[in-house]
Amino acid sequence: MHCTAYAGGGRQKNKPRGKCSSNVALRSVGAALAPLLESHKDAYQVILDGVKGGAKEKRLAAQFIPKFFKHFPELADSAINAQLDLCEDEDVSIRRQAIKELPQFATGDNLPRVADILTQLLQSDDSAEFNLVNNALLSIFKMDAKGTLGGLFSQILQGEDIVRERAIKFLSTKLKTLPEEVLTKEVEEFILAESKKVLEDVTGEEFVLFMKILSGLKSLQTVSGRQQLVELVAEQADLEQTFNPSDPDCVDRLLQCTRQAVPLFSKNVHSTKFVTYFCEHVLPNLSALTTPVEGLDIQLEVLKLLAEMSSFCGDMEKLESNLKKLFDKLLEYMPLPPEEAENGENAGGEEPKLQFSYVECLLYSFHQLGRKLPDFLTAKLNAEKLKDFKIRLQYFARGLQVYIRQLRLALQGKTGEALKTEENKIKVVALKITNNINVLIKDLFHIPPSYKSTVTLSWKPVQKADANQKRTSEDTTSSSPPKKASAGPKRDARQIYNPPSGKYSSNLGSFSYEQRGGFRGGRGRGWGGRGNRSRGRIY
């Protein structure tokens, strides 16, 4: 590990002023310094020169330099630089000793500098060293949280990629372990202000981590705090720009941002801006969407996000227009019954496939937004369109009843372990989907159509507590240096349900979308590469 100069003060190698002949000499100097500190500046310089000696001299220097550091402020720069020489020594035991003692240098104006140095040392791949650096950072956090954060954010904004990555990881895993007396309101405001600077140029993975950091701040748990976070996400999503469905990076960024926004929405923090964007720009281009994530049903993913957001949509400027777009998309997945031949059989041969997963999302979204314009079906549609819609609903409902009976029969009497088989898991989810659609269709068959029924989306857990209760995400901390996340499954399995005999799909593939690379292309240096960061370390 190679250290270079700390920004704001050139670091020069210490010139020996008298070679330490032995380990004993250093011990003698250390003992002599205690009673006569002020008059022994030259003796302290001898200790500093000990970093040029052998292994034993270096170990003693690593202890004595910080021990007497506070008594020689005029030699502060030389002392810190000498300790840094030891932090990059070839002998791992010397490095560890030097790193362990670094917090003793964190006094007054030196603290941000020490925090900056420790942040750079996070790049160590030695687990013991890495743990020492983590502990040292946590200890100076308790001395001066704002000063420590200054050093961390300095490296996040200007450091090498490996340092930036590990500094962000440190914040995402360690901040939540700090007591309230450390994370004061002033400190949290500083974190938010610095995070906004970082968010001007981030990868997708970095964005997810920063949202976890900010979502965990006590000052942002309020309605106004959540609203601030939603606005941050909306800015990152770039909802003002033209949506390009054929650009996988554009689609990727929108979905990653929307996923971060969804847990923030509530009856007081509205999703209107996102729902409007989805209705106006995404739904009309649903079939043209592309994604860099292999095996992902991007259309279903979009519809699920829209369904989740629709519950918290506030007053919408172009409600009728957007409801019409949603209605038109719903019709695409609700086929008319096939024409019958004279003998009563299907004239076309094959019956239309009913895509229940898509219909659940679209019907739920329409049901939620329809509450805001309850006369849409009766006053805004002409008689022919309303008649056509009811025919489609009736045909879909007939098919639903058949499948619901089949599913209930297949699951009858099964409990416990029997329901945990892959086949039965599919059937349980399928039953939730079909029951939800059935309830919503019954509402729309009322005269006039009703929007009073409540269902829980099939992929959401049934919550006994308040539906608007804050959702928290778990994060694990590691005592070893962070490693690249594997491409394995991270999110809950997205389940697609279709009818049997070629109409059902048993493929319940899961995907890791949230943790993928980044928001490539796009703003500034791009959400994936973040441009070229070859600045080098700045101890």
UniProtKB/TrEMBL annotation:
One of its GO terms (cellular component) is nucleus. Residues 503-513 have a biased composition (Polar residues). Keywords: Apoptosis, Nucleus, Repeat. One of its GO terms (biological process) is negative regulation of apoptotic process. It is found in: Nucleus. Signal peptide: none annotated. Residues 518-531 have a biased composition (Gly residues). Residues 462-539 are annotated as: Disordered. Belongs to the API5 family. This is Apoptosis inhibitor 5. It comes from Gallus gallus (Chicken). The gene is API5.
